Hints:
The protein has 141 residues and is an alpha+beta fold.
Amino acid sequence: MADGTRYTFFDHTADIGIRAHGPTLTDVFLGLARGLTALLVEESRIGSTQTRTITVAAPDVESLLLVWLQELLFLFSTERFVPVEYAMEQLTPTALTCRIAGGTFDPTRHLQGREVKAITRHWLEVRQENGVWRGQVIVDI
């Protein structure tokens, strides 16, 4: 990816884990968001015809990651909105504001991926080590 974010998947019982890493905390949050989208909508080209601004807060960075991903899952579940572009306007360990652009999932044109039921706290982790930010989350499928 051009912005340096990375994500990978790992198996976890009946769930799937997503890991991301990068030089900044933003890279981790966006990498995990992209991983979630890749699970929901497999190899589908979705245009960026709509924008949303997400603002969330939490008492710590791991809880912030959790509510961020839950908000993205909520938008997909309720509006079928799929983000394809992100502009992180603010990110601290307890608050986030991100402008996202994307489009509406259309089952006649797009390939449905996994049905993600929830983002869990199990194995939820965000940390910085040796100058690299790392994060992981387990999603209930």
